[in-house]
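Exercise 7. Given the encoded structure of a 527-residue chain, write a plausible sequence.
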């Protein structure tokens, strides 16, 4: 006989089955009919959506369940997740969080390696290489091909961070050293995002000088080659007589004055602008420009516009002012804010007086003129005076200043670029943004008016990874202002005599003294 659990438990005990027959009957297992599925029975009809076939089958066995209630119960139970499902989801979320944390850590190590400092929320990962533009953002091959043609292989630090920020449609302040590729950093996302077409201007780039606007337009055209973009620089003629209702233009590069003029007089409509770039932004926020900038910013009324500010120098005051118009902007700084490129060897040279400066310049050229050399002076009058002096020395020199016609200015720049001129004498008109490849030396014949002016002037050399040299002449009159420049030099790793760093701090930052004529004796200047 098969042993049941009870037979084992009660083994050896005498049990009077007759006497307890009733009780035995009570404890006999019953056949539970509800557990038998009978297809002929009238089943409660469930709406299809109530549950799976399995659910229906389960319902079929439960005759006691009220149909309507049952439907509701099943409906609710379907949306509720099982413990297993919840656990899986929780694990997934945990995994994603961990991966995100790892990515943030990797990004931060990467940024540190390239001296990229950021502030703002949800900042996209920096670019590891240009190919990521394709894999992460679907960049068209021909745009990447254009980079290849231009021999641009690796992104520079500002490009690594600013490009993904702009592609993520975030507004930004970008501050990176002179010659470090800021132009491409704002042009490339524009070319990737804007769709060429006839709907009007979609990208606007503002530059403080016409020369820089022309140069940026050229760069933009090179990068856009092969795509049917219409890229235009705002010329005098265009701003005075252009019919913007008929002219097709996707990207417009202009100085603030010309753009404001075209808006007022030629009814240029900027309401569809998707990208607005203020290049050399700190200059654009200076007194002479700020009204026009305000007018342009207001005219770019597209609510989803992306505005960005780029410069090698970004004073806090400008950032504060700009923040009032920008939305949730990200800040990217490469290296130290407001610092000179570390590729430039910088020297200070005491020349005593105006006459001493001319003597020192001749001495520098005599010791070895290594063209191309860019010489900065304070005013257009002084450009002309110095040019006359150098003409006696048989040096191939030329000038650029505001009194020349646009054509003459362009010719001077082109000849210098082509190596036909060795020395270009210029005012601060040439100090910002101009990209002369291979300038060997910048000479500040006249002391720059501010640390920012110094950084931009000397930044015409030491570009795109090449080394450069900068010599700044100073007189007794300039001495009190030396400390500002010396601090910039020290921050970029150059040696500075300790006595200069010990000079008292000046409240007045700008230094633009009335200078005597070039080459005059100190006494002559006082007459
Ligand atoms: N990724 C890159 N690799 C090599 N060269 C580059 C790269 N990006 C830009 N360049 C080149 O570097 C030079 C300087 O670039 P760019 O004029 O944009 O500098 P910038 O940062 O705007 O300087 P500035 O502050 O003086 O205006 C240009 O000749 C440009 O073609």
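Solution.
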């Amino acid at each position: 006989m098969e042993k049941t659990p009870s037979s084992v438990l009660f083994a050896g005990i005498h049990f009077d089955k007759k006497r307890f027959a009733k009780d035995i009957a009570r404890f006999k297992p019953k056949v539970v009919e509800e557990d038998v599925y009978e297809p002929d029975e009238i089943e409660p009809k469930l709406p299809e959506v109530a549950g799976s076939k399995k659910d229906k089958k389960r319902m079929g066995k439960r005759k006691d369940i009220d149909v309507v209630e049952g439907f509701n119960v099943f409906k609710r139970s379907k949306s509720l997740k099982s413990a297993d499902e919840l656990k899986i989801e929780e694990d997934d979320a945990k995994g994603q969080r961990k991966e995100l944390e790892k990515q943030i850590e990797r990004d931060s190590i990467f940024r540190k390696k390239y001296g990229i400092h950021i502030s703002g929320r949800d900042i996209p990962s920096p670019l590891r290489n240009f190919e990521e533009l394709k894999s992460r953002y679907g960049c068209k091959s021909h745009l990447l091909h254009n980079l290849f043609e231009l021999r641009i292989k690796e992104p520079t630090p500002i490009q690594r961070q600013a490009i993904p920020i702009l592609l993520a449609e975030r507004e930004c302040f970008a501050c990176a050293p002179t010659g470090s590729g800021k132009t491409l950093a704002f042009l490339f996302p524009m070319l990737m995002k804007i769709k060429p077409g006839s709907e009007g201007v979609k990208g606007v780039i503002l530059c403080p000088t016409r020369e820089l606007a022309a140069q940026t337009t050229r760069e933009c055209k090179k990068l856009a080659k092969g795509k049917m973009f219409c890229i235009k620089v705002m010329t005098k003629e265009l701003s005075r007589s252009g019919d913007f209702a008929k002219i097709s233009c996707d990207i417009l590069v202009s100085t603030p004055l010309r753009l404001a003029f075209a808006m007022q007089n030629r009814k240029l409509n900027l309401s569809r602008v998707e990208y607005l770039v203020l290049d050399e932004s700190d200059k654009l926020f200076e007194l002479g420009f700020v009204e026009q900038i305000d007018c342009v910013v207001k005219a770019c009324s597209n609510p989803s516009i992306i505005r960005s500010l780029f410069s090698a120098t970004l004073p806090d005051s400008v950032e504060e002012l700009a923040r009032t118009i920008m939305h949730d902007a990200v800040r990217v700084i490469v290296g130290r804010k407001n610092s000179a490129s570390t590729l430039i060897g910088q020297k200070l040279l005491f020349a005593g007086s105006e006459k001493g400066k001319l003597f020192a310049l001749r001495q520098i050229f005599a010791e070895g003129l290594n063209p191309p050399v860019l010489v900065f002076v304070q005013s257009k009058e002084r450009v002309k005076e110095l040019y006359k002096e150098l003409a006696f020395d048989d040096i191939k020199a030329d000038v650029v200043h505001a009194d020349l016609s646009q054509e003459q200015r362009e010719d001077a720049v082109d000849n210098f670029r082509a190596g036909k001129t060795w020395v270009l004498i210029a005012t601060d008109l040439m100090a910002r943004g101009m990209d002369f490849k291979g300038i060997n030396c910048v000479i500040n014949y006249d002391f720059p008016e501010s640390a920012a002016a110094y950084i931009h002037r000397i930044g015409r050399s030491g570009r795109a990874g090449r080394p450069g040299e900068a010599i700044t002449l100073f007189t007794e009159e300039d001495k009190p202002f030396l400390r500002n420049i010396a601090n910039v030099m020290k921050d970029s790793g150059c040696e500075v005599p300790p006595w200069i760093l010990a000079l008292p701090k000046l409240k007045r930052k700008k230094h633009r003294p009335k200078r005597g004529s070039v080459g005059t004796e100190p006494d002559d200047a006082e007459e």
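Remark. The CA atoms of residues 187 and 288 lie 26 Å apart. Students should compare their own answers with the one above.
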